[in-house]
Amino acid sequence: MTAIAILGAGYMGSAFAHVAAERGHDVRLWGTWLDDELVGPARRGEPHPRLRMRLDAHVRLFSSPELEVALRGAEAVVCGVNSDGVLPVLSRALPHLPASAPLLSLTKGFITDEAGRIERISRAVRALLRPAGKDRPYVAVGGPCKAMEVARRVSTSVVFASDAPDVAELCAGWLERETYTITRSDDLAGVETCSAFKNAYATASGLCDGLQLRGHPEMYNTKAMLFTQATVEIARMAVAMGGRRETAQGLAGVGDLHVTAAAGRNRAYGENVGRGGRPAEVAAEMARLGELTEGYPALKTGWELLLRLAAEGRLATGDFPLLDALHRVVYEDAEVGATLAGLRIRA
Amino acid sequence: MTAIAILGAGYMGSAFAHVAAERGHDVRLWGTWLDDELVGPARRGEPHPRLRMRLDAHVRLFSSPELEVALRGAEAVVCGVNSDGVLPVLSRALPHLPASAPLLSLTKGFITDEAGRIERISRAVRALLRPAGKDRPYVAVGGPCKAMEVARRVSTSVVFASDAPDVAELCAGWLERETYTITRSDDLAGVETCSAFKNAYATASGLCDGLQLRGHPEMYNTKAMLFTQATVEIARMAVAMGGRRETAQGLAGVGDLHVTAAAGRNRAYGENVGRGGRPAEVAAEMARLGELTEGYPALKTGWELLLRLAAEGRLATGDFPLLDALHRVVYEDAEVGATLAGLRIRA
Asked: I want to staple A66 with a disulfide (CB 3.0 to 4.6 A). Which of A32, A62, A184, B158 is the partner?
């Protein structure tokens, strides 16, 4: 039995807590200051409001003020908040982080640091931990993993990536089970880059769905072309960020893009835009309804990162026609149908 | 204007004829002895019975006995029949094939020759043409390309692959247009292998859909894992067959698998099996209704090819757990849910 503290009681953190508890671990699920309405019901044994199911009875719940207790003696710390929450949550946890307990990150995205530089999450986290003498092995979890399905024991395969492969192996051993299998990888840069870009590219599939709802003929050919091009561009980006092409062609890239483009809020965001909604207004409206659409900011961040890498001579923007098209649709109100039809790809 | 003779007036041949005619070519669309009920209405200017739309008025239609006239003076010959029809149709066309006109193949699959050996279509075709002194440049068309959508000008990107790249370039020049863009490739072996395997692997997605219809929870994670593993296995097979990994990661592999797994008869076949139908009976019933399910025989052919390549030491069957699982479900009546849940992949 391993003591595992999970930070963030939303979809992913809670599903992960459930999985870990079913494996018999001492699981502490801590809700942030934004999670009070999730922790309360779960603590009373009621269904988790997001996952809509009861968590395993062995999950111990902690509310925001109880962070220190939740972390005490933890042998692994799991970060389950979204990319905006990573630095605020870890800053608060910093004094209480047990020495040497590895950090597993379920978070996908990039972090823009105080200097405005777009960074992989692991690098931003290390920049926080290291000066405090709290650096530790880091494992990024990638791959196609909807929380609702993981919690319901639907067969899921993920990737645990770390530059400390023995730690990835250790963590995988704690958590693997028949319905949650784990590929080990030493390509942290590749997995993080794929995970960060999939939300941006998943909007493409939704745009097609939206066009069809407006009366456009079925466009499976186009969706397949866009999917292929997305995987090609993600692979190029992974390599430019120091990762490997094969990582993008595996679960962390192709797999995660597939699940994101088929289901979820980023596809839905694209659909609403494809139907004719103004991109900024659709994002605002979905946010108002509590539906986080990471794809919208991810397109901006991804585009800015591309421009930076191009300026550094590490990439050519011309090799990213799909990211360009999606960015123009979402941030320059380019017409969806004409923009997709004008896309020229080679794959 | 180029004289283009298209053999086979089903979905793909007719859609291709429509596209070529819109580009202004002298298009002759010849229906095989099985296509009489398709050629008749189209010739009278009525909608094509399969495509459910009128073909471009410049498409000239020829019925089965008019093969010689259709081929006379053709500068390109397009094979648009299914893999079972390729050798019978080309055997009949053989005496009339204009010298040196390149052969474009829209056909996807493998051909089992008289000795029982599974061959890429181009090799089986050459074995027919060469002894007759009728060998010629060969171009295989791969990529995600539903005929209904091509005919309706839905944005589509395909691959023209040839070991005579200048001929692929020539043919692409004849046919490319804004909604039908063409990647050129010299990887004939890779494109043919990808095209032949996608029907087999597309059944996996349908199996998941069928399980859900039987009450299984949503399984987007599983579908994404299966899709990823399918692309990994197709890439391995492409390499073993003399092709390139990148081909499988482009439109011919990832792209064609995507469209086939999302829509079409092979997905539907998998769905019917996933719902609990006996695989052989589902295939027979769909055949009775005129719905060709290439995925069913493709799984048998693909498995036999794998066994041969393994016996030759060129591949290991253990690297193809998904093909193994699908083959067991479809040809050994293995239980769908348990078989998919027991799949162990690394990607």
From this structure: A62
pLDDT at B111: 96
Structure token pair of residue A103: 């950090």
Q: If you measure CA to CA, which chain A residue comes closest to B225?
A: A255
Residue of A nearest to B157 (CA): A225
Rounded distance, CA A320 to CA A235, Å? 11
Which residue in the list B134, B198, B223, B300 is annotated as catalytic? Answer: B198
Q: Which of A340, A205, A297, A320 is nearest to B156 (CA)?
A: A340
Q: Model pTM greater than 0.95?
A: yes
Closest CA to A82 of A61, A59, A111: A111
Reported as a single tens digit per residue, the pLDDT across A287-310 is 998 787 888 999 999 999 999 999
Token pair, residue B266, equals 């092979």
Helix (H) or strand (E) holding A105: strand A103-105
Verify whether residue B223 is a known catalytic residue: no
A-chain residues within 8 Å CB-CB of B263?
218, 220
Q: Give the tens place of pLDDT for each residue, B30-50.
A: 999 999 999 999 999 999 999
Cβ neighbours of A347 in B, within 8 Å: 157, 183, 250-251, 255
Contacts of A274 (CB under 8 A, 6+ apart): A206, A207, A208, A209, A210, A211, A212, A213, A214, A336
Place of tokens 């040809």: B331
In this structure, how many other beta carbons lie within 10 angstroms of the beta carbon of residue A240? 18
